[in-house]
Design a protein that fits this description.
The protein is α+β, with helices and mostly antiparallel strands and 545 residues long. The protein has three domains: 15-200 and 386-434, Bira Bifunctional Protein, Domain 2 (BirA Bifunctional Protein, domain 2, 2-Layer Sandwich), CATH 3.30.930.10; 264-362, Alpha-Beta Complex (YbaK protein); 451-544, Anticodon-binding domain (Rossmann fold), CATH 3.40.50. The chain starts with 20 loop residues before the first helix and ends with a helix.
């Protein structure tokens, strides 16, 4: 492609509202343009990269035995009512009505649609297992769209759904999709980790997130410094429990003031989806993990309710009516501790073994750097990550709610077992840009680069340079996607734009064109050398392969 015929509106200055590297460079290099908050157009360069990511995804999905289909973006509300998610999903679900007043949602995800489809089609074990996928635009009304494509209100996603007759089949598919995702993100050139995660509003139990490591990432990864253990910080198990001191137990509630060295126990109050109150006891200095609390209660929703309890003496130890009391494992061995809530001391000389014997203990706190790794190997460190994919075992969460059943080998009706597997395609584009860039612009991996080779004649008015550049363009174009900068621009402008765009190889045709010598530069390393025209093709092949 000739650059004079392309729409590549590069900018000299950084966009004022860009909050991260990928957002800044994708706009500055002319890959995307914002139409509204969290809504973007993909210009020709950006769309070329997007299609290459989609091609990799399709290849790996087909290799894993998945079948592609396309489902509607507009979904009837009745299906969401069947699963209860019309109310659970929250304000992120974009809702609308047609001219008849019928409720619809713009697809944030497609569990309801796919389940409604297969419940009429996959009615016997003979058709199982089956995995269906699509690549489609999704919509979520983010409260605060930010970081360009990393958190938008409209985005492109690959979502796959598998259907099974038994757990062994689901386990096998989960493993295969895990491997397929590993292949996708490796081929895209990402530095990533697969981490244990929470399924959130999706439902199900077993799930992993694929996190691209980046300082701008909104998620924190807890990982071992001595093994391959990694988990979303919200799901990382805490195995460390402080040892009990050997001091003698004192009588409960004796004492007029806290003494130096006494362990503090704090209380945090939540309200679940049925408006039931939950009080959580935990050690001062720790942080309650509301995801762990939600999972311990098997609740679908949980929100802080600090003003919900009117504290008075003996509240916690006498157990309020209709209040569930939970305690973090970290206070199991506390001796002569002090319970505080909302800055008020409730009890002195609390001994967990004696005074909290009827309280349910569980791992309810956030893991900390330096804690022992849950797998027993090394200690926990933190890193930031961008979620680019996630795999779930949904089980019967949707099939039971929507009556999606099949007849087993004995002719008995059973709910379908389901798996769900998502890749943020547009988010992957941004994550790659976040990781593959420098101070001058983007540095695309070969597999995703909009063009593999960027040919740049310094002066298009020079006949020798123009002729040689066009000769290389024709010859290399038979094997590679080539961009020829045929614009009548200053050399400085061309070099700056080339660095911004970030093609893996640049071939500069300059003053030595008459000698059939050009400069070849590797964008990522900055390595450059003069080569004869006859050597260029072999060098490019060796580098790009």
């Amino acid at each position: 492609m000739k650059q004079s015929q392309m729409l590549i509106p590069t900018l000299k200055e950084n966009p004022a509202d860009a909050e991260c590297v990928s957002h800044r460079l994708l706009i500055k290099a002319g890959f995307i343009r914002q139409n509204a908050s969290g809504i973007y157009s993909y210009l020709p360069l950006g769309y070329k990269v997007l299609r290459k990511i989609e091609a990799i995804v399709r290849e790996e999905m087909e290799r894993a035995g998945c079948l592609e289909l396309l489902m509607p973006a507009i979904q009837p509300a009745e299906l969401w009512h069947e699963t209860g998610r019309w109310d659970i999903y929250g304000p992120e679900l974009m809702r609308l009505q047609d001219r008849h007043g019928r409720d619809f949602a713009l697809g944030a995800t497609h569990e309801e649609i796919i389940t409604s489809l297969v419940r009429d089609e996959l009615t016997t074990y003979k058709k199982l297992p089956m995995t269906l996928y699509q690549i489609q635009t999704k919509y979520r009304d983010e409260r605060r769209p930010r970081f360009g494509l990393l958190r938008g209100r409209e985005f492109i996603m690959k979502d796959a759904y598998s259907f099974h007759a038994d757990e062994a089949s689901l386990d096998e598919r989960y493993k295969k999709m895990y491997e397929a995702y590993t292949n996708v993100f490796t081929r895209c050139g990402l530095d990533f980790r697969a981490v244990i995660a929470d399924s959130g509003a999706m439902g199900g139990k077993d799930t992993h997130e694929f996190m691209a490591l980046a300082a701008v990432g909104e998620d924190t990864i807890a990982y071992s410094d001595s093994s391959d253990y990694a988990a979303n910080i919200e799901m990382a198990e805490v195995t460390f429990i402080p040892k009990a001191s050997d001091e003698a137990m004192l009588p409960l509630d004796e004492g007029q003031a806290k003494q130096d060295g006494q362990a503090l126990i704090h209380v945090q109050v939540f309200k679940d989806n049925e408006d039931q109150l939950v009080a959580v006891l935990y050690a001062a200095g720790d942080e309650v993990n509301d995801i762990k609390v939600k999972n311990a209660l098997n609740a679908t929703l949980l929100e802080a309710a600090p003003e919900a309890m009117n504290w008075s003496q003996n509240d916690i130890l006498t157990h309020f009516d209709n209040v569930t009391i939970l305690a973090d494992n970290g206070i199991k061995n506390i001796v002569n501790g002090v319970i505080e809530a909302s800055g008020k001391t409730l009890h002195f000389n609390v001994n967990a073994a004696r005074d909290l014997s009827n309280v349910q203990f569980a791992d309810l706190r956030m893991i900390k750097e330096g804690d022992p790794s849950p797998d027993g190997k090394g200690t926990i460190q933190f890193a930031r990550g961008i979620e680019v994919g996630q795999v779930f075992k949904l089980g019967t969460r949707y099939s039971e709610a929507m009556n999606a059943t099949f007849l087993d080998q004995n002719g008995k009706s059973q709910p379908l077992l389901m798996g769900c597997y998502g890749i943020g395609v547009s988010r992957t584009l941004s994550a790659v840009a976040e990781q593959h860039s420098d101070e001058n612009g983007l540095c695309w991996p070969t597999a995703l680069a909009p063009f593999a080779v960027h040919i740049m004649p310094i002066n298009m008015k020079n006949d020798e340079q123009k002729t040689l550049a066009e000769k290389l363009y024709q010859e290399l174009g038979h094997q590679y996607d080539v961009l020829l900068d045929d614009r009548n621009e200053r050399a400085g402008v061309k070099f700056a734009d080339s660095d911004l765009i970030g093609c893996p190889i640049r071939v500069t045709v300059g003053k030595k064109a008459s000698e059939q010598i050009v400069e070849v530069k590797v964008r990522r390393t900055g390595e450059s050398m003069e080569l004869s025209v006859d050597e260029v093709a072999a060098f490019i092949e060796g580098h790009l392969s």
